[in-house]
Amino acid sequence: MHEKPNEADENVQTYAESHIIDPNSLVSRVLRELYDSVQNEAIPERFLDLLEKLDMAENSAKATENP
Amino acid sequence: MNDTVESDKRRFKRELLAALPNLRAFAVSLVGRHDRADDLVQDTIMKAWAKQDSFEIGTNIKAWLIKILLNSFYSQMRKNGREVQDSDGILTERLSVHPAQHGALDLQDFRMALNTLPPDQREAIILVGASGFSYEEAAEICTCAVGTIKSRVSRARQRLQEILGVSGESDYGPDAASTAVTSRPVTNSPL
């Protein structure tokens, strides 16, 4: 009934993985700091405009298809 | 029926908008420069919009967008040749006389160090270390084996630690040994 030979393997793997990238290491923290600093910026206008234009282009294409 | 299509479109647009800050963060971390990163994001938005029918609502749009962005990134790189590399080691030299002090690192230095990594390593460490993807998800995004991602992340981390002169331990605050080595005066220190 010992059908869980993988369990030990999984534990080993999790341990190894947690040491590939220690979330508290300086490198990890600064990487996240860099990432978050950009992520917290407001979405630039150019992208909002672009989505607006894509939306409008689609709607006007539809209007010509089914007048 | 048309209403469903309509609401799917609206939902797609909403999800796309919500994922944009994350996509930009990924792009800027990967490319190292806001202007080039934003061009890449713009390109990704247009491609994503054009193929929105292939996106399954309810699946991870962040992963889907990053995949599109990476495709553009690598095809641009193939077209333009290699990125500017730190061929003279100037950056590495500058950074080695500017080591991390007391568990703090200058964000700009970190950015430059990140940029010296090969793009596949950069991509891997950002996906796993900052975007919050699992190794399996990252492997899916990069269309490579999980083991490949793991070794890229590990090499990236080691290289960054070398360049920046920091250890891999959970290093809150200075430890005695490294403080002694790094106690030379540093210009531009954030402290």
From TrEMBL, chain A:
Pfam families: NepR. Residues 28-58 form the Anti-sigma factor NepR domain. It comes from Gellertiella hungarica. This is Anti-sigma factor NepR domain-containing protein. InterPro entries: NepR. It comes from the Bacteria.
UniProtKB/TrEMBL annotation, chain B:
Residues 179-191 have a biased composition (Polar residues). Keywords: DNA-binding, Sigma factor, Transcription, Transcription regulation. Residues 170-191 are annotated as: Disordered. GO terms for biological process: DNA-templated transcription initiation. InterPro entries: RNA_pol_sigma-70-like, RNA_pol_sigma-70_dom, RNA_pol_sigma70_ECF_CS, RNA_pol_sigma70_r2, RNA_pol_sigma70_r4_t2, RNA_pol_sigma_r2, RNA_pol_sigma_r3/r4-like, WH-like_DNA-bd_sf. It comes from the Bacteria. Belongs to the sigma-70 factor family. ECF subfamily. It comes from Gellertiella hungarica. Residues 108-160 form the RNA polymerase sigma factor 70 region 4 type domain. This is RNA polymerase sigma factor. Pfam families: Sigma70_r2, Sigma70_r4_2. PANTHER family: RNA POLYMERASE ECF-TYPE SIGMA FACTO (PTHR43133), RNA POLYMERASE SIGMA FACTOR RFAY-RELATED (PTHR43133:SF25). Residues 20-82 form the RNA polymerase sigma-70 region domain. GO terms for molecular function: DNA binding; sigma factor activity.
